[in-house]
Automatic annotation (TrEMBL):
PANTHER family: STAGE II SPORULATION PROTEIN E, STAGE II SPORULATION PROTEIN E-RELATED. It comes from Streptomyces silvensis. NCBIfam families: sensory_box. Keywords: Hydrolase. It comes from the Bacteria. GO terms for biological process: regulation of DNA-templated transcription. SUPFAM superfamilies: GAF domain-like, PP2C-like, PYP-like sensor domain (PAS domain). InterPro entries: Bact_Sigma-Reg (IPR052016), GAF (IPR003018), GAF-like_dom_sf (IPR029016), HATPase_C_sf (IPR036890), HATPase_dom (IPR003594), PAS (IPR000014), PAS-like_dom_sf (IPR035965), PAS_fold (IPR013767). The lineage of its organism: Bacteria, Bacillati, Actinomycetota, Actinomycetes, Kitasatosporales. This is PAS domain S-box protein. CDD domains: HATPase_RsbW-like, PAS. Residues 160-190 form the PAS domain. The keyword Signal does not apply. GO terms for molecular function: phosphatase activity.
Length: 872
């Protein structure tokens, strides 16, 4: 039988959802059905949201009261929407979907529910049975035999003690005098802490001062009586305020063994007499969150704030998680607020102006306009009233949950208690999910840093290192980044690299940063906020907008409001600077940025700090390598002869290859230089070994040859003095094979040569008829014996003849067990008849390279001289 009804219609606008929640809550509370209010409000919120938001139609809500249940019907005007059957729960979809969750909640929370169709309407209804309790009581227990009733010592005395804002006793009734032996004049004005024996439980942080500030508290402690003995008491505290707004706490105290007088009975129906308890009781966490609970932390937090908002008929809700040191709270989920702007923003926990001072205790703010800045997260959002409660695990602050409304005076201590009850149920699950996420993040961070270290260690090129630094941070750590480098302590930071996850934004960001003074290079570790890019971007966007509206200077060609506003949005969020410090010197700065109104998570900043240390060392290594390579190459180039002189009537070509990456000079060398009018010296040699040590002897030999030849010494004398100079190097000396000669071009087109071959591969002469023959005799090499007796051989190159001189890197070219050798070289040379000196040298080098697939392991030098034929 229906004993009462209430109906209302709500327009298809977002605000109707909150209005519908208030309608249902007020209706059920007016009927006295507070036990089912929360479930009814949550279900109504979901069903009305489906109607006015997703279906886009008006919603009719009808509340019906019977003797033992409440039925609520929600109708919309969109009957063609597909509704899953009760017998097919598997078709309801994921609980994380934007729509369709109302039916899942009906299945989880309602006693009965269903869907009815008419030609013009669709109606979803649910029924909630009322607890079986005697009429007129809020809670009742079963009838008990007399011998099971609580025992009291005569008359039950309830001490009523009132505590003012400062914690001092302001009222003390007669029962308090009887229980503790003090008259009111003895205790009035004294702190309650002078008389209370408060238990200190390890792992909890709530003291008596904290308990007195709570809206409601129950528990046990002791009171020292006038005789000095401690009387165990059970207390119920209620915080109130007078008509002037002055707060105080009313404490009701009884002897601890008479606690049944004050102790709040447990909510929920008792099991039937004579039956065992149910094997599976309802989990309060699942009742609040819904089943199944989201697996991921973000999903759990988002579900939490949505349920909290619905439970208290709020316009917005938010959840913050505490940092490891509990000094700050980080916004992790919100609804009804600009979440993109607030996500990962941080607020301090410590009390003070503009601080989140009530994070460790429940708090109700009836009107935020009276206490601006009390909840910084809500600044500028239009919210007027707010209730916040802490999330605690084993007495440790782990977060804060809040619900806010646009209207003032929406919340009281009753709502704070209900929200605290919900927060206590979810705190452990949230903390467990947070720790799981943190562990996954740390594992991911380690993998990221290992991969980053491998990539950075794989290159010594400065530009490539800069590119790797940027590519590893974007988009993994930041939306955009910039790298500034500092050449030396006297130099200003220079913008070296800019990267944005959207390539079309790179030029705009780079142009903006070039107009901003670079950040100061400081060695202090850690990230620091740099506001200049965001401010410059916003100013540029404002100027562009004013010019576009004709309120400022005309826009120049090539600029546009779209590009400027896009750049402002790209760099308008939080920007941080991390120093790049290597070997106790700041060598640059890594700048990371977020788009408009976004903030960095602390874990990301810590990861970026680790990356910056590795990147700084890699960048400095690349710098040192580049400097040393430049020095090495400069010194090596100084060992090479200058440009070869033009020899009248003789073609000359040289090809030189030094073994080893980055080497320009090795143990092989060549030279061709004028001695005096009509006479030229030439040399090709091979110092034992390769690398810098061999190159040092190369420089000694080449310069000594030029100096001695120009002093008028003949070939044997030149080599004998060079031999002595090499032996003078002592332990640094190396033996040297050398082919040295002097060349005199003749008027008849031939050329006369005088040659000394000191342990070097013999030169080969190619005649016009294709015959090849050695063109000298072997003699002892240099750098081994003190006394050498060398002699020179004189020969003539006829027109068309070619003289080929090579080092042993050519003849000893190997492929497995095969070696090119002198015979192989001669075979290649026979194919060069009629070629110029340049073509001969090129063909020889090509044959050497093709002989084996591996890179040459020895230096190679080829010197080809040709006397042009009569037909050239």
């Amino acid at each position: 039988m229906i004993t009462a009804r209430a109906a209302a219609t709500f327009e298809p606008v977002g605000r109707s959802v909150a209005t519908a929640r208030s309608f249902v809550r007020d209706t059920l509370q007016g009927w006295g059905f507070t036990d089912v209010v929360d479930d009814a409000v949550v279900l109504t919120s979901e069903l009305v949201t489906n109607a006015v938001v997703h279906a886009g139609t008006a919603a009719d809500v009808l509340c019906l009261r019977t003797e033992d249940a409440v039925r609520i019907e929600v109708s919309d005007r969109y009957p063609e929407r597909e509704i899953p059957l009760q017998s097919s729960p598997a078709t309801m979809g994921s609980p994380d979907r934007e729509g369709g969750r109302g039916l899942q909640l009906c299945a989880a929370l309602a006693t009965r529910w269903g869907v009815d169709y008419t030609p013009t309407h669709k109606q979803v209804w649910f029924q909630l049975d009322l607890p079986d309790r005697p009429v007129g009581t809020r809670a009742a227990g079963p009838q008990l035999p007399l011998d099971l009733l609580p025992v009291t010592d005569g008359r039950v005395r309830v001490a009523v003690v009132q505590i003012d804002r400062a914690g001092a006793i302001s009222a003390w009734n007669e029962d308090a005098e009887e229980l503790f032996g003090y008259v009111a004049e003895q205790v009035t004005g004294k702190p309650l802490t002078d008389f209370a024996a408060w238990p200190h439980t390890p792992g909890t942080s709530t003291g008596i001062a904290d308990a007195l500030r709570l809206s409601r508290w129950e528990g046990s402690y002791g009171i020292r009586d006038s005789g000095g003995r401690v009387t165990p008491v059970y207390a119920s505290h209620l915080r109130v305020r007078d008509t002037d707004g002055e707060p105080s706490t009313v404490c009701l105290l009884v002897r601890d063994d008479e606690r049944a007088v004050l102790q709040t009975p447990l909510r929920g129906p008792a099991p039937e007499p004579g039956t065992l308890s149910e094997p599976h009781t309802a989990d309060p966490f699942e009742i609040f969150i819904g089943s199944p609970a989201p697996d991921d932390l973000d999903g759990l937090l988002q579900r939490t704030v949505e349920r909290a908002r619905d439970m208290l008929d709020g316009d917005a809700a938010f959840l913050l998680l505490a940092t490891d040191d509990e000094t700050e709270l980080e916004v992790r989920a919100s609804t009804g607020l600009p979440s993109a702007r607030q996500r990962f923003a941080r607020v301090p926990v410590e009390a003070g102006p503009g601080r989140y001072g009530s994070a460790r205790m429940p708090a109700v703010h009836e009107d935020l306009t009276v206490v601006p800045g009390a909840v910084p997260l809500l600044n500028g959002t239009g919210m007027r009233s707010v209730v916040t409660v802490p999330l605690k695990v084993e007495g440790r602050l782990t977060g804060s949950l809040g619900v806010a409304a646009e209207a003032p005076d929406r919340y009281s201590n009753e709502e704070a208690l209900r929200l605290q009850f919900a927060a206590d149920r979810i705190a452990l699950a949230v903390e467990s999910a947070r720790l799981g996420e943190l562990e996954r993040l740390r594992r991911g961070s380690l993998s990221f840093l290992v991969e980053a270290s491998d990539l950075l260690a794989g290159t010594l090129d400065r530009d490539q290192t800069l590119a790797l630094m940027a590519q590893m941070t974007v988009p993994t750590l930041a939306t955009w980044c910039a790298v500034y480098t500092i050449a030396d302590q006297a130099s200003e930071p220079y913008l070296s690299y800019v990267l944005h996850e959207d390539e079309e934004r790179i030029d705009g960001v780079k142009a903006l940063l070039t107009k901003v003074d670079p950040p100061d290079p400081v060695t202090t570790p850690g990230a620091r906020v740099w506001a200049a890019p965001s401010e410059a971007a916003h100013q540029a966007a404002l100027r562009t907008s004013m010019r576009n509206l004709g309120l400022g200077e005309p826009m120049t060609v090539g600029t546009g409001i779209g590009t400027t506003l896009a750049t402002a949005s790209a760099v308008g969020g939080e920007t941080v600077v991390l120093p790049l410090v290597a070997r106790n010197r700041v060598i640059g700065m890594l700048v990371l940025g977020k788009p408009s109104d976004e903030h960095f998570r602390q874990e990301i900043l810590e990861l970026a700090e680790d990356l910056s240390r590795r990147a700084a060392l890699a960048l400095d290594n690349a710098r040192l390598y580049s400097e040393r390579m430049a020095i090495s190459q400069s010194l090596q180039r100084s060992l090479l002869p200058p440009e070869l002189p033009q020899v009248p009537g003789v073609e000359v070509e040289v090809i030189y290859r030094a073994a080893g990456e980055g080497n320009e000079v090795g143990g092989d060398f060549y030279d061709l230089f004028p001695i005096r009018d009509g006479a030229y010296g030439f040399a090709i040699g091979d110092v034992c070994g390769t690398g810098p040590e061999a190159a040092a002897v190369t420089g000694l030999a080449r310069h000594a040859l030029r100096l001695l030849a120009r002093e008028g010494f003949g070939g044997p004398a030149v080599l004998e003095r060079l031999n002595a100079a090499i032996l003078d190097e002592g332990a640094r000396s190396r033996f040297l094979t050398l082919l040295y000669g002097e060349l005199w071009p003749q008027e008849d087109g031939s050329a006369v040569l005088k040659v000394v071959c000191a342990g070097h591969p013999l030169p080969l002469r190619l005649r016009q008829d294709g015959t090849v023959e050695p063109y000298a005799e072997p003699q002892p090499l240099l750098g081994v014996m003190d006394d050498l007796e060398l002699y020179e051989q004189t020969m003539t190159l006829d027109p068309g003849d070619v003289l080929l001189c090579v080092t042993d890197g050519v003849t000893e070219r190997r492929e497995g067990t095969r070696m090119l050798g002198d015979d192989g070289l001669a075979d290649v040379l026979t194919t060069c008849t009629g070629l110029t000196a340049g073509a001969v040298a090129a063909r020889i080098m090509r044959a050497v390279e093709r002989f084996a697939t591996d890179a040459p392991s020895d230096d190679m030098a080829i010197l080809a001289m040709r006397v042009p034929g009569l037909e050239d």
